[in-house]
């Protein structure tokens, strides 16, 4: 998706709604440093961060200058150049099952000053972001959340989880295979380019990860403020394969009291290969003079416990929702991923905001590719009606074959069946099953999804399964 941050005009509905409250909703011009700094100050205040130091401000200017920034201004406050509400957004890829990526719209920096809360400012901004996402051609909108009760009302739902994992050093005896390459300590600044290349490959193989913006690696590697105590405490390691090619990296710090063993803590471990992942874990868990290792934002199906003699050395101390997704264009979203099984499945999607409402018939073949039959403007679903990219109307022959394949080999009666198996679900439930993070049958047990038959649920479970659990390893 090519994008010029200010190419989409300010949303007129949000502008009107906020103007009726005496507030001015407008786009920030990043080349206006005064306006950008006011926005950055409001964002920091909204998240209860300290006032930015100059070095942080420079970093923020660089990152935010590439995004679409909105502020809500109140002419009645003592400093009217600092907005009372902020939001940022940008187009970015989201990795989906099958090693592919879907066009996404990332939303971040949602803050409303405590002096202006609960007047509908966040609602106006969030609804505007969905309209902008649609205009930009995104299939999904996405965000990470401070509280899990804010965004469901706009159709977002948890789609990928993340875990904090602790490993007790005394019990961590490695039984996994040795990787053929080597792990080296490297200076964080020297890792910068290799880290970007490795991250791209690690993101591509993990559903739920989003494309990295350039500044994030500077933050992860402590390069934004390299002289700060936090940055100087960071140690970086890199795995090079047997041919000397960098394939993974991690950055950790050991927190400890003087003369006491501490904890090795890391927020980043990115691996383009399984060898790299194992080798980096091994160096981290086998360190001496530490009580243990704590990894944050790790996958909920990390292989580490299968690499140690004592699986109880590993404790998941926290596992919760992390990436939230909102399906904006269901045909494009469904057509982008690969499916775990062949079959034909109709999805009757309810969407109070209208974006994804209707019947979408998903036709997956044995190689995991799918075509999506999309609703027509007149409400019917049959015949042609190609949706957005990656979707086409399914020819009848293909539909029969996929249906028969879903039923088991040679089932002619299935191929003749008039109606495909179907699920009725809310757009939020579609977001939750989209990356394979929860089985449709679990949401049916929770009373959220209704299936036309038991066979429909079994088929949906198999189709929406992802080989790798969806995982997002950053905040945005
Ligand atoms: C969360 C926040 C943005 C809400 O802003 P706001 O302008 O007060 O929200 P609105 O008045 O537009 O409320 C819209 C709806 O969200 C609900 N809501 C707002 N904040 C909520 C919260 N923290 N938890 C649950 N619901 C919340 C409101 O009750 C309202 O519900 P309704 O319209 O369905 O009746 C604001 O409180 C804030 O800046 N918090 C600190 C920073 C933060 O956590 N940002 C979120 C980043 S992910």
TrEMBL record:
Compositional bias ranges of the Low complexity kind: 403-417
GO biological process, one term: aminoglycoside antibiotic catabolic process
Active site: residue positions: 151 (proton donor), 476 (proton acceptor)
Annotated N-acetyltransferase domain residues: 23-180
Tree of life domain: Bacteria
Record key words, sorted: Acyltransferase, Transferase
Family that this chain belongs to: Belongs to the acetyltransferase Eis family.
PANTHER family reported for this sequence: N-ACETYLTRANSFERASE EIS
Name under which the protein is recorded: GNAT family N-acetyltransferase
UniProt source species: Agromyces luteolus
Lineage, broadest ranks: Bacteria, Bacillati, Actinomycetota, Actinomycetes, Micrococcales
